[in-house]
Amino acid sequence: MKYQSDTFQRGLEQLHIDLSAEQFDKFYLFYEMLVEKNRVMNLTAITEFDEVIVKHFLDSLSLCLIEDLNKERNLLDLGTGAGFPGIPLKIAFPELKITLLDSLQKRVKFLDEVISSLGLEKICAVHGRAEEISRNSLYREHYDLCVSRAVANITTLSEYCLPFVKEGGRFISYKSSDIDEELAAGKKGIELLGGEVRQVYRFLLPESDLQRSFIVIDKKKKTPKAYPRKAGTPSKSPLGL
User: Fold this and answer.
1) Which of 111, 137, 143, 163 has the fewest Cβ atoms within 10 Å of its own Cβ atom?
2) Which residue segment(s) compose the domain that 19 sits in?
């Protein structure tokens, strides 16, 4: 099944992304697989084609507004769910080395199917909780970049994400526009984890009127071994709050 989306073309132009015909085909196959699998398991509430294009594909790719993604970098997508932002980033920027981390085995199996069907390389899906995986030396302080679109307080997300980031790397959280109070309350905890808020980048999501933000956190020093705390604690009792 072939798709044609002027919305996608215009959005990509706004992001200054130029895709080949093969890359477009991979996006459309990913969409088909997403909708098909969504019939039997809950992956996304968004299934209409152009809405997926804007709220999942373009939203995921908007990371290119603040990061150079055209070179080989180790990237972790924490709480990837149905593969966002990691799968779109991999399709559009094949030089990235990506790890998709999710706590639900069924979603990881779906991601493995997507990776295989799309012929993607230098990408893997890992099943596990961040609190446990981040204590594994293969993953801890291993990544140049950790990103997450997960819905959680920035302090909680930082406790999950910063242990994966190497010194000199970054954690970038995909957020809506209403984050000032949350961020102000979280700075103390972020610093305790070895991070420092570098910037908040605000923008309008291409082909929409949706206000979006990136919170960019630099990893300044190693995360203390005590973090992350045991499962559930970072969300129930965010650091510094």
Assistant:
1) 137
2) 6-236
